[in-house]
Amino acid sequence: xxxxxxxxxxxxxxxxxxxxxxxxxxxxxxxxxxxxxxxxxxxxxxxxxxxxxxxxxxxxxxxxxxxxxxxxxxxxxxxxxxxxxxxxxxxxxxxxxxxxxxxxxxxxxxxxxxxxxxxxxxxxxxxxxxxxxxxxxxxxxxxxxxxxxxxxxxxxxxxxxxxxxxxxxxxxxxxxxxxxxxxx
Length: 184
Prior knowledge:
Blueprint: H1 15-19, H2 22-33, E1 42-44, H3 47-54, H4 58-70, E2 74-77, E3 82-85, H5 88-91, H6 97-107, H7 113-118, H8 137-146, E4 160-164, E5 179-183
Antiparallel strand pairs: 1-3, 2-3, 4-5
């Protein structure tokens, strides 16, 4: 379809974006505008491509992806090398019938059902959902209780979230042993 991506000027005033460091802002913008993007907001891209196009080292790419995953802005599946960008539709309007048809075709090629769920798309029949990928509310409560509702690093009780010790972006699982309570 289109060979361009539009970013609404409100991107720069978004409260989340405003708090990001400059390199993270540009990385987030890159994820929304690189040549691999699709109209549906889910697309395939590998770390080598990201490293080459951004000039970042692979480890730096992993750090940025992990940060955006913890913030709930993206999900990256290391096995399928697919990324889903949560706010894609916020910055890329899809009201045209041609765009909607394009999105429906693209969704047929998504390999990870969790990415579809993350983006609030319907999961096609036959595509399997991996229950170990997401953190259930029950598991999140368990982790918070185990860690005494405090950040594992600084004992803060403000803005707590559940964090993967081994990031999902490099194969970490959503299991009790790989989760901890951290402040944002």
